[in-house]
């Protein structure tokens, strides 16, 4: 089954690496939560939204590395051991959760009084993208092949790497305007 010729049951096992790193990423976000709580206590109990972004900075790097690892190694079973794309998918899992959780917390902290509306807008936008991507994703994978789609997504993630840094550095100034 697939590039590596795994049986149906064994082919599902590499997904466990992603699941394990999602749990690890959740734990990392919890550790950063303690740092956020200390900063909030020093700020008279007022949240500092940018303090939520530290895990996102690390997560975005892991996400980009994971996409490239998966793209560059997954299509060459005769040359690359199966563990390499599995490590790539685990990096993707770690990156996804350490991007998603801080992003949600950041939105809530930025729009305290209107947090429900901000989260609804975020959910609507994510759902729109989630509904639109299947309309062209299959054609991308058929025409570009898995490796080049992975490289394209990896390049998009590299282009977006500065976003958490910029929000961490300039988020307060942007909100004040």
Automatic annotation (TrEMBL):
- On the tree of life, the source organism's domain of life is Eukaryota
- Kindly give the membrane topology term recorded for this protein: Multi-pass membrane protein
**Listed GO molecular functions?**
transmembrane transporter activity
Cellular component annotations (GO), alphabetically ordered: plasma membrane
Bilayer-crossing residues are: 13-32, 53-74, 80-103, 110-136, 148-168
Q: Tell me which InterPro entries the record gives.
A: MFS_trans_sf
- Where is it localised? Membrane
UniProt KW keywords: Membrane, Transmembrane, Transmembrane helix, Transport
Mind telling me what this protein is named? DEHA2A02640p
């Amino acid at each position: 089954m697939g590039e590596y010729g795994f049986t149906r049951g064994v082919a599902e096992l590499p997904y466990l690496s992603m699941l394990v790193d999602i749990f690890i990423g959740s734990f990392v976000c919890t550790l950063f939560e303690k740092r956020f709580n200390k900063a909030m206590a020093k700020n008279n109990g007022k949240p500092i939204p940018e303090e939520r972004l530290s895990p996102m900075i690390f997560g975005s790097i892991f996400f980009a590395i994971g996409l490239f690892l998966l793209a560059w190694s997954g299509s060459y079973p005769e040359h690359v051991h199966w563990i390499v794309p599995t490590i790539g998918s685990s990096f993707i899992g770690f990156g996804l959760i350490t991007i998603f959780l801080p992003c949600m917390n950041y939105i809530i902290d930025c729009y305290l009084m209107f947090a429900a509306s901000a989260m609804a807008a975020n959910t609507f936008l994510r759902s729109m993208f989630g509904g639109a991507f299947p309309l062209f994703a299959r054609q991308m994978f058929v025409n570009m092949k898995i490796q080049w789609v992975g490289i394209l997504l990896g390049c998009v993630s590299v282009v977006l790497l500065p976003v958490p840094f910029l929000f961490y550095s300039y988020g307060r100034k942007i909100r004040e305007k």
